[in-house]
Write a structure and sequence with these properties.
The protein has 19 helices and 30 strands. It has about 750 residues and is α/β, with parallel strands linked by helices.
């Protein structure tokens, strides 16, 4: 199958003034969306954070943590808490989760007539605040510290006559069965479950069993927690196995920079009667921005979803304090499906001189252009940020599975979330502009989607490039940032005598891409270089009309073999493709067709070449490898490692004519592996040229079986120019946007 990388592009977006800063009657500049003021509320997106090489720092201890025990085991000790509250005195201790943050969640699950049990109450003000605001009055608080119970009885006795404080161990409570509708736990489980040793887990099992015993059917166990993975996993597994419904709420933060860095969660476990033999689990997560819970399939998925939100909180905390040395990426997910909707990259440019208006901006990448070098690589985004002139730029890529309501809709959706990524020192009420290319979000039309047994899920989509050009692309979704094949689409020509339609005054619908393929255009830079390398085959002037035997391994969309077939009029082209789905895609969507001089063989390239080597040596003038690897764990995505092993390369040399050329598209990020591949190629082919594709990982290797045909790079450039002139005389349309001679200017002899 064809393998490719995104094409480069120039950034033509204009900067503009923030919307709130416009003068009356002033038009907003093209390329800049309205600004968002610093301080907007968060919008409804779930978050999946990916730390792109950036370390997430742990929070510094707060003043409230001064009385931590010498060892975590003391958290479960009555003696420790007795000493803790004596030393702390009457100051209320809220480890995390202040009442204003918890109140919206508690109001969902605590009714005024409920009997509520608070386990491990300490001297927190939570029960008092619930009582005072009328949420509930029948509240029983228990703790193992005599000092804190006496303190709380004294503090609330006369003010809150219906609320009680009792000295009691929650592992062995005196209450009758099914006595409460709600059990509330704020940090107690976190304090007990400090490790996963057998004794600790046994204590937690006892705690859960007692809570289950005193709760009525339909009752709720509300556990306020920092949701460490082992704590959440234990709670979820225990209660889901008992057929309880488990829901995890993320508590909305207040925006206070002094608050706990990690987000606070409330586990809501609702008791149901256990049905023998039932395997039904209901597990849900409710992110802070939305009320509707999202269903997950397993405890592991629930833990992973919580961990994503914890990483995001740490990431935001770090980004608000210091510039990031390396780019950070994260996904914002659709609240309904949970699938990624936006991919964000945070890029800091510390060398940009600071001014009041250049702290922060958001750049919306047009749909379908996220694979281009400027937007799809770290170096490209770094250049984009520097060109934009902002100290922090957040680039936003749009996903093909999602629908977007234009630039204004995207800004409304993102305004709150991107402000959580604001840099340190952003002035209050600072206007933050949304930038784009040409002022729109681009066009992407998915023409075809299917699944191949070999290549997995793939899409064929049409996207708008620079100006009015459209391109058709083949994307394998297992590696969605790589364009496998690409073709330019021809603009439709009006029929003779056809009049132009009058412009509709109504709001125009998005333009439909044209359908015809421009076969004269080689979209991929590595394809241009591979064609230019054919000038190594004898005199380039008569070459387009010479009888040639060309073998292409890897069909993809078929643009490379099509070009060779059309512009080398006597060439017989054999294409080997392992995936039959790709032949169907190339034929239906990329204008490919077989004929007398074009044959496709559905076969493994390794087997096909080995068979040719055994049957008929020295039969090919040119052999071209443009085949991708399905193993994403290897640092080489093109070709598969077996295609550059010495025995196979010797087979390639066997079927190549003495004056022929073997052209290989190499995409290898592993320096040691690449060195090994080049060494093997040199062992088999005495003459080796390399052309690095600028701005991409691709390197094109031209291999010849004899050193006698060696030519210096300058001569190769001249020969490529002669070949181009000859190709232009074939009668086919010629695209003049590139020069074949340029493809060989930077060639090296290895």
């Amino acid at each position: 199958m064809g393998s490719g990388q995104g094409r480069g592009s120039q950034w033509e977006a204009a900067r503009g003034e923030a919307a709130n800063g416009k003068r009356p009657g002033e038009r907003q500049p093209m390329g800049c969306g309205p600004a968002v003021p610093n301080g907007c509320a968060a919008q409804p997106e779930a978050v999946r954070a990916r730390r792109g090489g950036t370390r997430v720092a742990a929070a510094a201890p707060s003043a409230a943590m001064e009385l931590l025990p010498r060892s975590p085991g003391e958290f479960g000790s009555a003696r420790y808490w007795e000493r803790f509250f004596r030393q702390r005195g009457k100051r209320p201790f809220e480890w995390y989760g202040a009442f204003p943050e918890l109140c919206p969640v508690l109001q969902k699950y605590v009714r005024p007539r409920d009997k509520v049990l608070v386990v491990g109450c300490g001297n927190s003000e939570l029960s008092e605040q619930m009582y005072d605001m009328g949420m509930c009055e029948d509240i029983v608080n228990i703790d193992i510290s005599d000092a804190v119970i006496r303190q709380m009885q004294e503090r609330s006795g006369s003010k809150r006559p219906k609320m009680r404080y009792l000295l009691m161990d929650m592992l062995q409570m005196d209450f009758p069965d099914a006595h409460f509708q709600v059990v509330l736990d704020k940090g107690t489980l976190d304090a007990i479950l400090i490790n996963e040793e057998e004794a600790t887990l046994a204590k937690v099992d006892k705690m859960f069993a007692e809570i289950s015993r005193v709760l009525q059917v339909g009752g709720r166990y509300l556990c306020v927690s920092l949701a460490q993975a082992h704590v959440l996993k234990k709670a979820v597994e225990y209660f889901s196995q008992e057929d309880w419904v488990v829901r995890v709420h993320q508590v909305a933060g207040t925006g206070d920079k002094q608050q706990f860095v990690l987000p606070v969660f409330v586990y809501v476990m609702t008791k149901f009667r256990k049905i023998p033999g039932s395997a039904l689990q209901i597990l849900e997560i409710c992110p802070e921005e939305q009320d509707k819970p999202m269903r997950v399939e397993s405890a592991e998925q629930l833990v992973a979803a919580v961990k994503d939100r914890q990483h995001y909180a740490l990431l935001c905390s770090q980004l608000s304090k210091t510039p990031c040395g390396e780019q950070v990426s994260l996904d914002l997910c659709d609240k309904e499906s949970g699938k990624p909707r936006y991919t964000l990259h945070v890029v800091d440019s510390p060398l940009v001189k600071s001014s009041r208006d250049n702290h922060f901006a958001i750049f919306i990448i047009p749909q379908g252009r996220e694979t281009e070098w400027l937007f799809g690589t770290e170096e490209g985004r770094r250049q984009l940020a520097a060109s934009a002139g902002f100290r922090r730029l957040v680039t936003v890529a749009l996903h093909r599975e999602q629908h977007y309501e234009g630039m204004a809709g995207i800004q409304e959706e993102l305004s709150g979330k991107v402000m959580e990524l604001a840099p340190p020192g952003l002035p209050a009420r600072q206007q933050v502009p949304f930038l784009s290319v040409g002022g729109d979000i681009g066009v992407r039309v998915v023409q075809h989607r299917d699944t191949s047994s070999l290549s997995g899920e793939y899409v064929v989509e049409d996207v708008k490039g620079d100006g009015t050009c459209y391109f058709r692309r083949l994307i394998f979704l297992c590696n969605r940032n790589v364009v496998q094949s690409e073709a330019r689409l021809l603009a439709p020509m009006p029929l003779p005598g056809q009049k132009k339609r009058r412009k509709d005054k109504k709001k125009p619908s998005p333009p439909e891409p044209p359908a015809a393929i421009d076969k004269s255009y080689l979209c991929c830079e590595h394809h241009k270089a591979m064609v230019a390398g054919l000038c190594l085959l004898g005199d380039p002037n008569p070459l387009p009309g010479a009888v040639l035997a060309v073998l292409v391994v890897g069909l993809g969309g078929g643009s490379l073999p099509l070009f060779v077939h059309d512009y080398f009029s006597q060439a017989s082209v054999a294409v080997v493709e392992i995936d039959p789905s790709m032949l169907e895609v190339a034929t239906r969507w990329f204008g490919f067709s077989e004929g007398d001089r074009m044959k496709v063989h559905i076969s493994d390239g390794l087997d096909y070449v080995a068979k040719l080597a055994a049957e008929a040596p020295a039969q090919c003038d040119a052999i071209m490898f443009d085949v991708d690897s399905k193993d994403l764990t290897v640092g080489m995505s093109c070709p598969p490692p077996a295609f550059v092993e010495k025995p196979f390369l010797q087979n390639v040399k066997t079927i190549l004519k003495p004056e022929g050329v073997f052209v290989l598209n190499l995409v290898c990020r592993d320096a040691q592996l690449k060195e090994s591949v080049l060494a093997t190629l040199k062992e088999v082919f005495p003459l080796l040229y390399m052309r690095r594709i600028e701005g991409e990982v691709n390197e094109i290797l031209f291999c010849q079986p004899s050193p006698e045909g060696r030519r210096d790079p300058k001569e190769l450039g001249t020969r490529a120019g002669v070949l181009e002139g000859a190709l232009q005389q074939t009668g086919h349309p010629w695209d003049s946007s590139y020069v074949l001679a340029d493809m060989l200017q930077a060639i090296e002899i290895l």
